[in-house]
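Structure first, sequence second, as always.
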């Protein structure tokens, strides 16, 4: 049996301090300074645990580059722009975006690239992928990125931020926790006492959920940081992730290892632990601090609006039949709504300073799911 130092540490913490909230367990699984999943490995690609959209096709990053150019023009084409990526993987998306932006020399000259990444293994990969890019810097947090007009890209970033989970009982909502069963295995439980007046904070749809329902939520700190930054310093943020358009009850806490779903309590630190993103909650938090919200829309709709079909056709025209087939398959994967496609599962949300209206691919007039 493989050694599981993080599991042993979590067991010891529960024995000494009592049941552990889900958010703390998730935080340890992903960010433990020695054994955390995102601190110690490259999880991407076929040899890793999952594949992200930029790894599926160069078209994804290229179109985000063109989206960046469109927003830069709406901002008045400032002579200085910070292009910030949160959780940039292997640097593939940024490399593809920058390649597309090279056709616009005034913008390319204005760029200062900032990569927010805590994983030293991935930082090395990004550095190699982006060798030759001038004006590039790495940071542990967006708090460390200097001020200035910014466009922020966050693809599959919010899904790994720790969630809190609540379970509805007859007498109210109890925090969901991790405890140890009689055989020494980890299991889910619930705090003995309900959280006072928790239902007052809930959307009506969730308040009406049956006994036994699970509701999960993330603190608003990270989205409020992005929204406040673009509100005060000019610019926009684009958030792409899998999740739901409306706040609702449901347990989406999951783990993925080797491209397969696995038990999130089985091997802490050795699988990617995530939960769906509540886009209605993100939009509400951004609006609360005075930023303008655009969307959300599905990834399929967004990519089609910003020209993925045209880009795919142009690439296929110059390609061999084998490569043309690969491009067609990638296009379907990114835009299709079926189980194998990312088109409807993934959503896209734009946040900007209030004067920016009608951002490319998104419209603040068509709020799917609404945020009221």
């Amino acid at each position: 049996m493989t050694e599981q130092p993080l599991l042993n540490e979590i067991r010891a913490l529960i024995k000494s301090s009592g049941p552990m909230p889900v958010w703390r367990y998730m935080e340890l699984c992903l960010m433990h300074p020695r054994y955390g999943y995102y601190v110690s490995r490259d999880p991407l690609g076929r040899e890793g645990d999952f594949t992200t959209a930029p790894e599926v096709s160069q078209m994804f990053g290229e179109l985000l580059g063109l989206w960046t150019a469109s927003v830069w023009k709406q901002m008045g084409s400032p002579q200085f722009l910070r292009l910030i990526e949160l959780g940039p993987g292997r640097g593939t998306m940024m490399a593809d975006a920058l390649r597309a932006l090279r056709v616009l020399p005034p913008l390319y000259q204005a760029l200062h690239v900032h990569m927010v990444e805590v994983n030293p293994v991935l930082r090395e990969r990004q550095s190699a992928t982006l060798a030759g890019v001038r004006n590039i810097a790495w940071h542990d947090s967006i708090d460390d990125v200097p001020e200035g007009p910014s466009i922020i890209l966050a693809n599959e970033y919010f899904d790994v931020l720790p969630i809190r989970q609540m379970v509805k009982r007859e007498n109210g909502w109890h925090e969901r926790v991790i405890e140890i069963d009689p055989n020494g295995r980890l299991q889910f439980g619930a705090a003995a006492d309900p959280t006072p007046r928790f239902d007052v904070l809930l959307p009506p749809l969730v308040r009406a959920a049956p006994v036994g329902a699970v509701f999960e939520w993330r603190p608003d700190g990270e989205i409020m940081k992005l929204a406040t930054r673009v509100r005060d310093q000019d610019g926009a943020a684009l958030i792409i992730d899998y999740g739901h358009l409306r706040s609702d009850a449901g347990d989406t806490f999951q783990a993925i290892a080797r491209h397969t779903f696995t038990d999130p309590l089985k091997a802490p630190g050795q699988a990617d632990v995530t939960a769906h993103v509540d886009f209605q909650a993100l939009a509400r938090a951004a609006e609360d601090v005075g930023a303008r919200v655009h969307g959300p829309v599905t990834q399929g709709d967004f990519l089609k609006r910003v020209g993925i079909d045209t880009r795919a056709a142009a690439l296929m025209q110059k390609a061999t039949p084998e490569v043309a087939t690969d491009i067609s398959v990638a296009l379907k994967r990114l835009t299709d709504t079926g189980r194998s496609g990312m088109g409807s599962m993934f959503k896209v949300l734009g946040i900007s300073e209030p004067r920016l209206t009608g951002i490319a691919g998104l419209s603040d007039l068509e709020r799917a799911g609404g945020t009221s």
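Margin note: The chain is about 35% helix and 25% strand.
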